[in-house]
Amino acid sequence: VPSPTELVVTSENFKTVLHWQYPSVSETPRFVVEIKPYNLGDYKNVSTCMNTSAHFCDLSEEICDPYSSHWLRVKAVVGSQQSEYVEANEFILQRHGKIGPPKLNLSRHDDKIMVDIYHPV
Predict the structure, then answer these.
(1) What pTM, to 2 d.p., does this model score?
(2) What's the longest Cα–Cα distance across the chain?
(3) Residues 8-29 pLDDT 10s
(4) What CATH number should be reported for the domain holding residue 48?
(5) Percentage of the chain lying above the pLDDT 90 cut
(6) DSSP conformational letter for 95
(7) Cβ neighbour number for residue 97 with a 10 Å cutoff
(8) End-to-end C-alpha distance for the chain, whole angstroms
(9) How many angstroms separate the CA atoms of 38 and 40, rounded?
(10) SS3 for 43?
């Protein structure tokens, strides 16, 4: 069974997602995603991405500490066979995450200009 390829972690406004590619196979492949936070020191299953058929996994609830290193890995399961795990590069939210620009609302009240700034979600 081939392993997933092209693992990429994207993170914008604290929404962190692992994406991967997988070739077409006769049966529908299922995927298992695991995460290793630095402070835990070992891999654990990502419960929302166990036996998923999607080619991505939302890790927003798993990665909260912006300064801590995290490692991610994924394997494919096709029928009764499984691939080797493939590991993504180290991910640190503070270093690799992006924060989008805030939404602005300008309005005029008499001789004043009001600027409302909304934080990203």
Answers:
(1) 0.85
(2) 72
(3) 999 999 999 999 999 998 899 9
(4) 2.60.40.10
(5) 88
(6) H
(7) 18
(8) 40
(9) 6
(10) coil
d(Cα 104, Cα 16) in Å, to the nearest integer? 24
**Residue 17: is it exposed, middle or buried by C-beta count within 10 angstroms (0-12/13-18/19+)?**
middle
Domain count within the chain:
1
CB 72 within 8 A of CB 18: yes
Q: What is residue 65's DSSP assignment? A: -
Give CA separation, 47 vs 4, 28, 35, 65, 102, in Å. Answer: 19, 20, 10, 19, 32
Q: Which has the closest alpha carbon to 52: 25, 26, 24, 74?
A: 74
Q: What range defines the domain where residue 92 resides?
A: 5-118
Residue 61 identity (one-letter amino acid): E
Question: Residues 47, 52, 53, CA angle at the centre, nearest 5°?
Answer: 170
Q: Rounded to whole angstroms, how far apart are CA atoms 10 and 27? A: 28
The residues, any chain, with a CB within 8 Å of residue 110's CB and separated by 6 or more, are: none
User: Is 2 in contact with 87 (CB distance < 8 Å)?
Assistant: no
